[in-house]
Amino acid sequence: MTATLFNYSYRPDDGLSAGPTTVPPAVRRIVIVGGGSAGWMTALIFARVLIPKGVEITVVESPTVGIIGVGEGSTPWLRGFFDSLGIEESEWMPACHATYKCGITFDGWSTKPGFESYFHPFASMLDNLTMTQFVHNAEARINGADVHAHPDRFFIATRLADGCLAPKPTEDFPFDVWHGYHFDAALLGQYLQTKALERGVRYLVRHVTHATLDESGSIAALATKEGETIGGDLFVDCTGFAGLLIDKALQTPYVSFAENLFNDAAVALPSPLDGPIPAETVSSALRHGWAWRIPLTSRYGNGYVYSTQFCSPDEAERELRERLGLLDSATPARHLKMRIGRVTKHWNRNCLAVGLSQGFIEPLEATALLFIQQTAATFVEFLVQGDLGDAAHERFNQRVNEHFEGTRDYIVTHYKTNTRTDTEYWRANAANLNLSDALKQLYTLWMSGSSIAAPIRQQALGKGYPVFSWYAIMAGMGIFPDRKDLRPPTAPEARYNMAEIDDLLDRSVVHYRDHRETLMAIPKRRNGESLQIYFW
């Protein structure tokens, strides 16, 4: 097995300014319908490259439509978004009550002894020194060797989360950790709006009722409740699950993931946070789904994602309140419905769907902002290349769809590999056979003791999550032979000394500070900072 170098560098333009000095003449006016995180993040990504090239960007936001915004968590790619805009963490994080996120703890998804909980870490430069050992031990254990293969023992991010430490090393320890964030979703949307307006994005408060089409079937203009007609060359649908443009106007076909992922609702409730601030999201398996716990600077964001096939909204709220000790609290709960799946064409004619309008995969791995960011940035790449033809549409949609499919399969794996039997919900998830061919192949290879690295890289699975994450979930859920069936390892299988790994991580973790203390004086990005990681 060979490692694949993942090189993430912070560059002011992120490479997107390269290419023609002007965008195609057919795109001079871009109208983004809907605000929130999707609309304003898209506006900022577009503005950085397109406004200097003479393109007018307008966000049209309804004064009456609310923002869903319950996620409150991100993947590490959000870091790259702010870095590409030249916005320091010390500026945006306090404005959004944000905290650092080293990864996610999955608690209670497995009942296998020793694997009842595991941490899915975000990668770091130090992982280059322990990744080989982890993958080797995982493959040895699936082949029956009694070696340590739980992922929690191998990665610095797990140590940081255990100690409520921030993933920001001291100046004398130049080993970066790729980290995500927790934040107040409403405040983030407001902050992004402010920055977009500062950078030349136009803003209209109008309630768009529908879109009119031209003779070719493309969007000609938007009609508003106020009686105004808004024209444009390209329209971006950020209207959430309503899909006002991509669905209602263009009637783009939709692919449901309901047979793969059962959850279709959530209830959210805040609770106080005192004492140390964790640097992790916690996802705990409950009776009919799972609960998130997300730490902000002064409160926890809590929620219960569940399936209405197995549980009513009232039952879900009661279970969440009991868990939080808020059964008699007057704190209101927020109930949400989710549509899980994606459109077939994210770029259809002269409309681009971004955010919930293009699709949604339940928030287990906090991928909502990632899809927004990558869809918008990928579209800009296509736009500056000057090709708006049918072949470009097809390539773009295939790329985005593969990302959705790969991410969906990773989320499905959490449920398919669960070993709980306490409710019909968990039994049905474990028995679910609605799996992609790629996922079936991966499971077969793993159970046969073969390497899963190459197939992941070659298929859509790898477009969602890197090989490293697939090893983490399979090992973390304890998908190994029962302990009684393990045998003593051979000398090659036992080649790595766990005490040496422990020593490396113990000596490394002392270079990271308390999370709350770090948030009080957030360090600025180092000049030329670059992150190189072997993702396998």
Protein described:
By secondary structure, the chain is of the alpha+beta class. It folds into 3 domains: 27-92 and 184-259 and 340-393, FAD/NAD(P)-binding domain, CATH 3.50.50; 99-182 and 436-521, no CATH class; 265-337. 34% of the residues lie in helices and 21% in strands. The protein is built from 17 helices and 25 strands. The strands form 7 sheets. It has a 7-stranded mixed β-sheet with strand order 6-5-16-17-18-15-19. Strands 9-3-2-13-22-21 form a 6-stranded mixed β-sheet. Strands 10-11-12 form a 3-stranded antiparallel β-sheet. A hairpin with a 3-residue loop joins strand 17 (289-295) and strand 18. Helix 1 (36-50) packs parallel to helix 9 and helix 9 (368-385) packs antiparallel against helix 10 (390-416). It is globular and about 75 Å long.
- Helical content class: 25-40%
CATH topology of the largest domain: FAD/NAD(P)-binding domain
* β-sheet strand percentage: 15-25%
Neighbour order of strands in the largest sheet: 6-5-16-17-18-15-19
**Can you tell me the CATH superfamily of the largest domain?**
FAD/NAD(P)-binding domain
Biggest sheet architecture: 7 strands, mixed
CATH architecture of the largest domain: 3-Layer(bba) Sandwich
Spatial separation of the terminal alpha carbons? 8 Å
Number of strands: 25
Mean of all residue-level pLDDT scores: 92
User: Which structural class do the helices and strands define?
Assistant: alpha+beta
Q: Nearest-angstrom radius of gyration?
A: 23 Å
CATH class of the largest domain: Alpha Beta
Tally of separate helices: 17
Provide the number of structural domains.
3
Poorly predicted ranges: 1-20, 530-536
User: What's the overall geometry?
Assistant: globular
